[in-house]
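Q: Given only this backbone (255 positions), what sequence would you predict?
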């Protein structure tokens, strides 16, 4: 678990202020967002702060309407592009920021996770796909939720937070989820929960049915994610085949 003597708020605030002092455009953007609502840093950036690692990018969810965000951007001289999943990507000098409004987040937009208006921090944490990525901190008051990440550290088990079949089937990044699961397993020598195991078996089999070569499809998607390149194609392929055989699933259609 995260050490109890760590002052998460203070540690994060110190790191984030240093970042904002470097990235004046990001500071200006957040200042304008805070006029209308708040923002939450989600996932890897907070995890990297806690583990004293440098981050390449930040994921931010903002609690203002997407139309208001676009109006803000229209008045600022900040270049941006649409990211893969309906959010906005900013390429600042030292940091890449992916930003979504709450209403555009896939889990809340499709009503797959209930948004508690009185406790949005915990709702956002529950909306994360993997427990490993479920870290959220409010940029206004630095309140945070790392409960699910703590569970990952304690049990050394990667899990999908939601059990709902609809939630899992509608997640838009199937191949990336598969790659990430095996990447984290190799990196941290962790186990998969039964919930995740069932998901992986189903989705890998589905890809094998949809494409002429299921493994080739997964390997091709991996090329789009530089952070997974230390996971070799050969190791990933063998890991998937071994996993499917262990779970008594035919691998005939994987090739």
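A: Predicted residues:
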């Amino acid at each position: 678990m995260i050490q109890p003597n760590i002052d998460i708020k203070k540690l994060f605030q110190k790191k984030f202020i240093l970042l904002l002092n470097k990235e004046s455009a990001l500071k200006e953007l957040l200042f304008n967002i805070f006029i209308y609502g708040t923002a939450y840093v989600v996932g890897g950036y907070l995890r990297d702060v806690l583990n004293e690692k440098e981050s390449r990018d930040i994921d931010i969810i903002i609690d203002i309407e997407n139309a208001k965000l676009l109006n803000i951007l229209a008045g600022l001289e900040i270049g941006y592009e649409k990211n893969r999943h309906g959010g906005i990507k900013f390429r600042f000098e030292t940091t890449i920021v992916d930003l979504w409004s709450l209403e555009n987040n896939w889990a809340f937009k499709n009503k797959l996770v209930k948004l508690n208006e009185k406790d949005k921090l915990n709702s956002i944490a529950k909306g994360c796909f993997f427990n490993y990525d479920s870290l959220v901190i409010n940029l206004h008051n630095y309140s945070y939720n790392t409960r699910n990440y703590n569970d990952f550290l304690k049990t050394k088990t990667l899990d999908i937070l939601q059990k709902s079949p609809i939630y899992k089937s509608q997640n838009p990044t199937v191949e990336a989820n598969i790659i990430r699961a095996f990447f984290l397993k190799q990196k941290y020598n962790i186990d998969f929960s039964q919930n995740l195991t069932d998901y992986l078996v189903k989705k890998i089999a589905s890809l094998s049915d949809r494409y002429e070569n299921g493994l080739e499809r997964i390997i091709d998607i991996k090329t789009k994610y530089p952070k997974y390149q230390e996971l070799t194609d050969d190791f990933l392929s063998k890991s998937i085949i071994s996993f499917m055989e262990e779970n008594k699933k035919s691998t005939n259609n994987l090739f």
